[in-house]
Design a protein that fits this description.
homodimer, mainly alpha, 8% strand, DNA-binding
DNA sequence: GTACATTAAATGTATATACATTAATTTTGC
DNA sequence: GCAAAATTAATGTATATACATTTAATGTAC
């Protein structure tokens, strides 16, 4: 369905304006689908994001500051996200020997198991959700990268 | 900059996965730019969204339920957003004669003035922010529409 | 080495959000 | 017309978020 129909707006003042609206609308749409999927595992999309970052690095731990840099939403409060994941025994905190200010975060075996359960569901979500062939998905990613490339 | 560099992730399991991450990352990036712009006017992106909807309909008022349908984020709590806008005298509430459950919301003169101040800034933001020509913006919008068109 | 600035993570606090529930009204089925 | 169901908006409540501040450790200038 076109963005015009979805939000019942007939005209936009420019292709850029339509794109702005469409981008935010589509991302919200996607985020709600994800939220529904992760809820069964008692995870928020942000908590899932942290776990994915930790799995990508495991068995090497990741500093809180580095998690922040890699988050999709850079303003996330990673300390508190890690608190939530700790309560569920999905991650561990370790002090960093070389810099006592820093804290190393490591995904646990249980954390890896949860991700393993979720993996096929996210793949399935993406493949059934997106009415695009992989070439179109690549093209869309390419245009999003280009969109952001102007500013620093 | 490519999404791989932005979030320091070298590989994705599929073009669809890269797209998922890229979409959410790009929308957050955009939303933070918008938040910065609207802050000078003491508005959140959501409050701005409501005002835009009301201007598009003025002088015909819009029911709360209809605002919800047109919002970019459909789970927004429009009652409370309208409360905030009322406090700032940017909108008025009117009871609906034909359905006493419904509430009509109308943008005020002050609301229209604020939008008029913001208009050139959002246009400028979009044109300087997006490293795309208008054809590419159209193509991106088209692909986003297509992406969402599978599910109901 | 001491003072000052910087960095890392955690915390305080006000606000926003998600989601369920409530209250009032209207619609529907009979 | 009446009871049950549906709709509309507001509210209750727990949690999440944004943003500033704090605490501790490290780096830098002198």
């Amino acid at each position: 369905m076109s963005i015009e129909t979805d939000i019942k707006q007939r005209t936009f003042r420019s292709p850029y304006h339509r794109l702005t609206v469409n981008l935010i609308y589509t991302a919200n749409w996607l985020l709600h689908k994800q939220t529904g999927l992760f809820r069964a595992f008692d995870l928020s999309p942000q908590q899932y994001n942290v776990l994915r970052i930790l799995r990508g690095s495991a068995p090497v731990p990741v500093k809180v500051s580095e998690i922040t840099e890699r988050m999709l939403d850079k303003t996330s409060n990673v300390s508190r996200l890690v608190d939530k994941l700790l309560e569920k025994n999905l991650v561990e905190r370790k002090s960093c020997p070389s810099d006592r200010r820093a804290v190393h975060i490591l995904i646990t075996g249980k954390g890896l198991e949860v991700l393993k359960e979720i993996d096929p569901l996210t793949s399935e979500l993406e493949s059934t959700l997106y009415n695009l062939d992989s070439g179109e998905a690549d093209e869309l990613s390419r245009l999003l990268d280009k969109l952001r490339s102007a500013s620093t």
